[in-house]
Amino acid sequence: MRAFFDPRQLRHAPVAELHNGAFTAYQETPDRAESILRVIAQTERPADRGEAPILAVHSADYVDFLKSAHALWREAGRDGDPIPYAWPIVGRRPLRLNRIDALLGQFSFDATTPIAEGTWDAVYWNAQTAVAAADAVLTGERAAFALCRPPGHHSGADYFGGYCHLNVAAIAAQRARDAGVKRVAILDIDYHHGNGTQDIFWERGDVFYASVHADPATDYPFYWGHADEIGGGPGEGATLNLPLARGARLAEFRAAQARALAAIRAFDPGLLVVSFGADTFEGDPISYFQLTTEDYRTLAGDIAAVGLPTVIVQEGGYATAALGSNVRSFLSGL
Ligand code: Q9C
Ligand code: ZN
Questions:
Q1: Any domain includes 263
Q2: ipTM surpassing 0.85
Q3: How do residues 236-277 score in pLDDT, each as one tens digit?
Q4: Where does the Histone deacetylase domain start and stop, copy by copy (predicted)?
Q5: Within a domain: 198
Q6: Is 21 a pocket residue for ligand 1 (Cβ < 6 Å)?
Q7: Which of 186, 181, 141, 140 is closest to 167 using CA atoms?
Q8: Which residues are found with C-beta within 5 Å of the ion, ligand 2?
Q9: Residue 194 beta carbon below 6 angstroms from any ligand 1 atom
């Protein structure tokens, strides 16, 4: 299977995150990509397709913000990486402010995700990696792997959070739509609900979003991913949320994924994007499912059996030493 990666994706390297009330080492490290690179025979560098495929998903003012945020933070006299800490909550009047502290809150939904000096460069190439994998499938490959890092599925059209800045799955899906694929499905099997992907396609009847994830009643991102969220307007019925209780093993996960795949089959898409997170692994340090390395091959086999051209984008997975093996197992089942 063709696999894509650009070394510039390593340039996003925040120092710390706010986790459970304290600053801890940032979990979403460049090492994650290195762990995957060690098990993949060969990766190709993506072509540079410019900002158009990014702007097909994200707003221009959000992209401008991402480019300038770190420099604005420095200009404000700060050390370290910008992390949002004040938000314009629901019901406040919209204000267009220029202060970096205010901008951080305007374009985010949580305080877990810093913008480091190299972040824009890294996420730009991260997006190109997703576009390259999509283009490979659009030109005849059965499947292609985008070694995305940082992940993307918590990022919406105009916000970052959950370690995500640009929504690589959404960018790949929209790329397929713009290339003429009439219906696209996204299967999200990261441990966490992909709130950003859901938001981006909420009112879209042409992109089906199905997610298996930890119940947001107990797990991040809490405010999205409940079973009664099914999309709105022309997108009503094109969102499917399948939350599972903590402790889920292969049997429960596989049954939920089968429901997602049945719905995707009924939607009859021309292309499938898989948001693959390995944070469902039993050894993951921030998650609570019990999948084994072997299980990923089984789950991938079920996905392959649907027979759709498939773009796989990497999302979470924080047991870094095992990440490469888990990804290799998943890709081997496709
Ligand atoms: N104390 C992805 O896997 N931290 N993002 C939760 C819990 C955020 C994970 C804090 C986890 C985001 C793509
Ligand atoms: Zn996750």
A1: yes
A2: yes
A3: 999 999 999 999 999 999 999 999 999 999 999 999 999 999
A4: 32-333
A5: yes
A6: no
A7: 186
A8: 190-192, 277, 279, 316
A9: no
Range of the domain at 209: 2-15+29-58+119-332
Residues in the chain predicted with pLDDT less than 50, given as ranges, are: none
Distance of CA 75 from the midpoint of ligand 2 (Å): 33
Ligand 1 atom nearest 154 alpha carbon: 13
Global confidence as pTM: 0.98
153 within domain boundaries? yes
- CATH code (residue 9): 3.40.800.20
Task: Indicate the burial class of 227 (C-beta count within 10 angstroms; 0-12, 13-18, 19 or more).
Answer: exposed
Residue 95 lies in a domain: no
Task: Match 């063709």 to its residue by tokens.
Answer: 2
Nearest atom of ligand 1 to the alpha carbon of 315:
13
Distance CA 32, CA 192 (A): 17
What span, in angstroms and rounded, lies between the C-alpha atoms of 161 and 303?
A: 28
**Ligand 1 contact via 151 beta carbon (within 6 Å):** yes
What is the C-alpha separation between 130 and 127, in angstroms, rounded?
5
Q: Any idea which ligand is nearest the CA of 214? A: 2
Tokens of 306: 């649907």
Tokens found for residue 72: 């604005």
pLDDT digits (tens, 9 = 90+) for 98-136: 999 999 999 999 999 999 999 999 999 999 999 999 999
Query: What's the total number of domains in the chain?
Result: 1
